[in-house]
Amino acid sequence: MPARWLLLLLAGFLLLPSPRSAAAQESPDPRAVLRAMEEAFVAVAEHVMPSVVNVTTTPKREAGPGRPEVEERFREFFGPEFYERFFRERGPREHVRAAGSGVIVDSRGYILTNNHVIENAAEIQVRLSDQRKLPARLVGRDPKTDLAVLKVEADGPLPVAPLGDSDRLRVGQWAIAIGNPFGLDRTVTLGIISATGRMRLGVSQFENFIQTDASINPGNSGGPLLDLDGKVIGVNSAIVSTGQGIGFSIPINMAKEVMGQLIEKGRVVRGWLGVVIQDLSDDLAPGFGVPARSGVLVSDVMTGSPAETAGVRVGDIIVEFAGHAIREVPDLQRRVAATSPARPVALTVLRDKKSSRLTVTLGEMPAEETLVAAAPAP
Fold first, then answer.
1. pLDDT in tens, the chain (378 residues)
2. Last-in-domain residue among 233, 264, 295
3. What b-and-e string marks burial along 14-43, b requiring 16 or more CB atoms within 10 Å of the CB?
4. Boundary residue ending a domain (220, 249, 264)
5. How many domains is the chain built from?
6. Residue pair 160/51 in contact by the 8 Å Cβ criterion
7. Type and span of the H or E element at 308
8. Do the domain assignments include residue 10?
9. Which positions are catalytic?
10. What is the phi/psi pair of residue 270, to 5°?
11. Domain CATH number, residue 121
12. How many CB atoms lie within 10 A of CB 290?
């Protein structure tokens, strides 16, 4: 090797910082890191807290001897221990008011909350962060997703929480919950996104929950779950009453779709395929020559349904809908429901172990109950 190359290598080596000095320069002050995190959490709380509201209701009627229906919903969601503490220890039934949370999502006064917070309510009242109490009108509710939209009239614009994108969530990222647990106004809790796409919880018909260990308690229902940018990524809805650190939030992208329809139409219009389906279990799958959880089995096709018109048959295995792979029953139910009626959609099925591509024009899901609020505007 020429001498000049040796000199250049030696000069470069001498100019490199020692490992100790490099580590000293690159190692951040642990307290500075913690303070930066602290400031991020504080900024989110200060920015969003004014848009979080306390929602209280009085029930329309009683279900059984001395038990308003709203009490039974709270028992179902939060377990008998909380029921005893929150209702039985609060005195006469006629004075009971159920409490929950909500978040202002539009400066005109639209508030997003849970259906179970306002279900069977004769009166709804909202308390703002400045302690003003306003009567709220029920714009519409959707039991199938456990969402509801309220409207309040205020003098001037209201503080609004920005909405995020729940499709971009990653397991392990920070999550911040704000709500009114046990009537403790605007409580902030911190955790992470524990999981996404949680289904089969029995909370609502269409489930795709975000799971978080940010502390959620009775009264948090309807409050926002936030990311570090202070954007709403979910609507806190349920907990496992026998566990700790297991809470569930409705993804904000699902909530945005439902909310938009409730504001525009007062109800939610969903697509309808017209089939009875079941999961490909470990026992069923081998008989059809496919792996388990690799599609859903059509066990019945309704007469005159969009599926019958498109040529779907009993025994078909639906593996793809509108370009999305289908693995289990809730996958197909949720995607069909989220598709507008009268829209042609590609459907891929396995029939006799061969792939077949069909085109189906969805109908409108039959309404099972009136979702438009009957109460007049305040």
1. 444 444 444 455 444 555 555 555 567 788 888 888 899 999 999 999 999 999 999 887 654 444 455 555 555 555 555 555 444 444 444 444 668 999 999 999 999 999 999 998 999 999 999 999 999 999 999 999 999 999 999 988 899 999 999 999 999 999 999 999 988 888 999 999 999 999 888 888 888 999 999 999 889 999 999 999 999 999 999 988 777 889 999 999 999 999 999 999 999 999 999 999 998 888 888 877 788 778 899 999 999 999 999 999 999 999 999 999 998 899 899 999 989 898 899 999 999 888 999 999 999 988 653 333 333 322
2. 264
3. eeeeeeeeeeeeeeeeeeeeeeeeeeeeee
4. 264
5. 2
6. yes
7. helix 306-310
8. no
9. 116, 146, 221
10. -125, 155
11. 2.40.10.120
12. 17
The DSSP call for residue 95 is: G
Token pair recorded at residue 185: 């106004």
3 state SS of 205: coil
Q: Give φ, ψ of 251 to 5 degrees.
A: -60, 140
Residue with tokens 């859903």: 296
**Residues 186 and 321 grouped into a single domain:** no
Structural domain boundaries, residue 285: 271-364
How many Å from the N-terminal Cα to the C-terminal Cα in the chain? 90
Please report, as a single letter, which amino acid is at residue 363. G
Residue 265 has, within 13 A of its CA and on its CB side, a CA count of: 11
The pair of three-digit structure tokens given for residue 324, joined into one six-digit string: 């999305």
Give the whole-angstrom CA distance, residue 100 versus residue 189: 16
Give the integer Cα–Cα distance in Å for 277 and 289: 18
197 with 87, same domain: the answer is: yes
Spatial separation of the C-alpha atoms in residues 30 and 313, rounded to whole Å: 63
Distance CA 254, CA 203 (A): 15
